[in-house]
Amino acid sequence: MGKQEIEDMDRAAEAVGPTWATDDVTLTAARERSGVGTRMGRVGRAFGVVALAVSIVTSTLSSCGGGGGGETGTLSAQVTSTCMLCHNGSSTTNYAGPGIEDPHPFPGASNMDCIVCHGGNASGQTKELAHVPPPPQIGDRNFQDTNATAYFNRLTLTGIDKFPDYTVDGVTYTAIDYLQWLNPGDLRVTQSGMGCGQCHAPHSESVANSLLATAAGMFSGASYAIGAENEVPASQGLWEDTAADIGWRAVVDPSFNLSTATVGEVGELVEFPVFSARNDNSPDAIEDNQAYTAANLLDDQFADGRVIPDTELHNLFMEQVAFTCGDCHLGSKGANNRSGDYRSSGCTACHMPYSLGGRSGSKDPHVNKFEPLDPDDIKDPEQPHVRAHRIVSVARTLSNGVEIEGMDDLTCAGCHQGSNRTVMQYWGIRLDQNEDVRRNRQYPANPDSYRTTQNDTRLFDPVLGNKEFNGRDHRQYLEFEDYDGDGRDDTPPDVHHEAGMGCIDCHGSFDLHGGEVGGRNEINSRQEHGVAISCESCHGTADAYAPTVAGTNYTGVNGQHAVDTEGNVLRNVRRESDGHLYLYSRLTGNKHYVPQTRDTIVDSGVNDPIGGGPVYSPAASYAMGRIDGSPSTGIGPQQKNHPAPGFSHTDRMDCATCHASWTNTCMGCHLEGEYNGGNNFSNITGERIVFRERFADFVYQSPIMFQLGVDHNGEIAQFSANTKTFFRYKDINNVRSDVFTFSDRNAKGSSPTAAFPALSHNAMMAHSIRGRVTAENEGPRYCVSCHNTTEGIANFGTEYESFRTAIRTGDYDSLNWSLLQDHIGRNPGNQLNSPMFVHMVAGLGSGMFLFDENGAPINPLDNNPNRKPDNVAPAGVYDATKVFYDLDRIVDEMGNPFASNNHPLRQPGMADLMRDGASDVDLAGPLGRTLLELLTDPATGLVLDSWYDADGAKGGSVTDFVGP
């Protein structure tokens, strides 16, 4: 169907509209709407004026439980309103017509009139009288088609709350009235006690202060990473000086008490500042300001690499963050302009998701079903739409027989595309932004085989016909990669995804609503402060089964339920009469057996009641058991020549350290902004601005590399590169600045005192959990991933000593690059049993990620003539004397960190010897001197004589402990 045909259909819908036949009235919309058909503009939404042919008797719906906190007030069906007649076709407020769906079909709160949520005038006799008119800054679609600022704010809702009150036909409206009309779940609406906030006020209050809404982790993390002073004086120095200070909108916790606060809590956030607005004549504004020239930025850093507060460089970097990253939160609808990114704001973003391509799946006859015409590139004045006008939540059948759909992973994927690209990883998909694999340019080595997502309908719907997801095509998303040629996928999906579980099966109300609903509504600083679920919540520990408490499931049945780390009942995880724990999927309702870690370690004869077969695994017992000779604690990782009585890996290790099978690694992130007077808009205020992103380039991406470190819990965890950012700016005179890197607020990351700075490196929960190797997929991280072995040292000991010396002394010319290409680039999970791989994992470096002072890679292996940032092949200009950054060498052998970290320990001092040698021992960070020696020094450390190799096969003398 061509574009012109769709436009013609849209105009016809406007001019004619539906004909509803009811018991009481027949409305022929064509008669009522003459002369209105072309007012909506190109591909306009087919809302038209409906003048009723009969008198309508209306009555106001009762309030929702008083509005202050009741969530299931009695809402009875009323005599019909103009809304119901026009959009559903029913003569009573019961959604019995063929049109729009009942959005809220929950017993006791179904059949609500539209105005309860959306506002407006249910007795209005025309569209103009019934609908809330837009502010003059937004106007109608014709206005939006010619006014880019109006369209941006209508599409994203970003700055609407900034508009003043306005009067139309003698009625005064607020901007929030209009926001409510568009989206009753927008947090600015719910915080005003309107829309969803009338009945769900506790949820509204909690979510509004959450990290999902404030984006404080991202905004404040960026401010911390460049060394900027905390914007909130009361928070300066708090939590190792990592306390959050900036959010999308200002929020305050009036009950904050520092003496009782937990790590990460703060009393307030200030709104992200904007310096790039047009027509801003203040001294620090960017427009037409020669203070922001490239030359003037050179003196805007302290000697230790921190940015000088309130300088032009400080302001420009934060503008870059706002432009590139500033729309990924619940406050607005985000970019909302391409397949995979379409969504709403606030509650609605999750509870009424948009379709993949933004096209309406609603039965509302007045919603255009063909826009966006091009799902990959929305055009003004098009608007995207919900899949259906019905709330999704936890999959279940209500007492009135209505089926509620579960919130699917696609709902999460639109936002969780950055950093760890969590949902894609969970699905077993890796982002290859530069298409290096397809172009046979993957660094440091190409996979033996690979497969793109060309036929993956989760991302690319053949019916919809989208060619992109989140602005990327199938060649940039890989669903299979095999680097060592064994036929197995080195980037497999998470086992929970394979089992049919979704994101919401782990992440429940606490994680998604900003904490305990009805609680204090704390403001937190980092992701871990807002997440209560853990592996142990469902699977228990090596020493104990998962605890349960009395609770009810989602259909109200009492039972014994698992709990999260905050003690919240997991209503979908319950112990049943056979003594086993089962998870009932919030996504599908399906039943899943939950094996207990203790049963995998101790052979108690437990069999999987659904899948069959024993739960006990000798390999698990060896890896996770305790070395104490007791059969009640498993075997433990015993060695012939290294006794370790009482030791268990589970004492101080995060589960995902071993069970996460692959990690997204991104080395080198080049951000460049530029002065530009075009149609660019602030993701904070919605204003037109004179700043835009010029480049956002990734240099290297790989699934093979990872590092170990100590996380916020004081446990060993997987670490990965965290936006190792190089920043540049092209000024008003078209002059490009120097390239800048930054030290954090604690002077780490790019400090001149580090031999070769490593920028940012943080713990990241890789969502790639595996239990064992299969014929199709690689498994978890077995012993050889992190430990040297007698076999590895025997095979590569000489090469290893030369390698260690070269890295320690910075003699990169002495590296055996072809050997490293095999031992790092083609060696997933350390199939080669290589000590060089172990050295990399420990955080001491691989030598593969060397960069010069301007952020350009330096190595003799990469022949890609288009390698970012300079579109030059590194091998062609290789010069080891120019190495300035060694990005995966995050620590030296004495435990002195070279990388920045912004996660404080939950309890000061809990890292003890795990970070000895560091000056920032109360922050998460690289391993300490003792652990580094243990893992990497063949002379004085631990060299395993018994192990499981990368394929899960027995090595050394392990059969002496686990049997043949």
Overview of the structural elements:
GO terms for molecular function: oxidoreductase activity. Keywords: Signal. With 964 residues, the protein is an alpha+beta fold. It has 29 helices and 31 strands. Among the domains are: 144 residues, no CATH class; 137 residues, no CATH class. A 5-stranded antiparallel beta sheet has the order 13-14-15-16-17, with no helix packed on it. A 5-stranded mixed beta sheet has the order 27-23-21-20-28. Strands 5-7-6 form a 3-stranded mixed beta sheet. Helix 12 runs antiparallel to helix 14. The termini are far apart.
Strand order of the largest sheet: 13-14-15-16-17
Distance between the termini: 66 Å
Q: Poorly predicted ranges (pLDDT <50, ≥5 residues)?
A: 1-78
Q: Give a short account of the largest sheet.
A: 5 strands, antiparallel
**CA gyration radius, whole angstroms:** 29 Å
Percent of residues in beta strands? 5-15%
Number of helices: 29
Mean pLDDT, to the nearest integer, reads 91
Helical residues, percent: 10-25%
Structural class: alpha+beta
Shape: globular
Number of strands: 31
Task: Give a topology summary.
Elements (H helix, E strand, L loop, with lengths): L2 H14 L2 E3 L4 E3 H4 L49 H6 L26 H5 L8 H4 L10 H6 L1 H9 L9 E3 L2 E3 L1 H8 L4 H4 L10 H8 L2 H4 L1 H10 L12 H4 L4 E2 L3 E2 L15 E4 L40 H14 L20 H6 L44 E2 L5 E2 L4 H5 L8 H6 L2 E2 L17 E4 L24 E6 L12 H4 L4 H4 L2 H4 L22 H5 L8 E5 L5 E6 L5 E7 L5 E4 L6 E3 L3 H5 L16 H7 L30 H5 L5 E17 L6 E15 L4 E4 L5 E6 L3 E6 L28 E5 L24 E2 H20 L7 H9 L9 H7 L8 E2 L33 E2 L12 E2 L24 E2 L2 H8 L6 E2 L1 E3 L5 E3 L2 H4 L2
Parallel strand pairs: 5-7, 18-22, 23-27, 24-29
Antiparallel strand pairs: 1-2, 3-4, 6-7, 8-9, 10-12, 11-12, 13-14, 14-15, 15-16, 16-17, 18-19, 20-21, 20-28, 21-23, 25-26, 30-31
